[in-house]
Specification:
This is DsrE family protein. It comes from Enterococcus dongliensis. InterPro entries: DsrEFH-like, Sulphur_relay_DsrE/F-like. The chain is α/β, with parallel strands linked by helices and about 100 residues long. The protein has a single domain, classed as Hypothetical Protein Ychn, Chain: A (3-Layer(aba) Sandwich). Helices cover about 35% and strands about 25% of the residues. The chain is built from 4 helices and 5 strands, in the order βαβαβαβαβ. It has a 5-stranded parallel sheet with strand order 4-3-2-1-5, with helices on both faces. α3 links the parallel β3 and β4. The longest helix has 14 residues. The radius of gyration is 12 Å and the shape is globular. The mean pLDDT is about 95.
């Protein structure tokens, strides 16, 4: 199972975390990507999100570089696990082309 969770609002990050936890509980070998763009990229700086990333290290975390620029978030501020992609929208399209199911949170 391959799933990409897309978050573009800070207020929806909690929902994404819960959904990821549930998928991994029922499908422990699931290939999961959490892609944040828009204002949500700021969420990668939150202590609760950093704790989550440390706990769920098998999840792939991606942040949109365009959104990071817009919200003044620097790559060096990001937890080491976060992969910066040039465009979140293009990243989502590529993941879906690779067979990932898309879930909007």
């Amino acid at each position: 199972m391959k799933v990409v969770f897309h978050v573009d609002e800070v207020g929806m990050i909690r929902e994404a975390r819960h959904n990821i936890e549930y998928v991994l509980l029922t499908e422990p070998k699931a290939d999961i990507v959490l892609l944040m763009n828009g204002e949500a990229v700021q969420g990668y700086l939150l202590p609760r999100m950093i704790k989550f990333m440390k706990e769920y290290q098998d999840v792939t975390y991606q942040a949109c570089h365009q959104s990071m620029r817009n919200f003044r978030v620097r790559s060096k501020q990001m937890y080491e696990q976060v992969e910066v992609v040039e465009s979140g929208v293009i990243g989502l399209v590529k993941l879906q082309e690779q067979g990932y199911s898309y879930i909007k949170c």
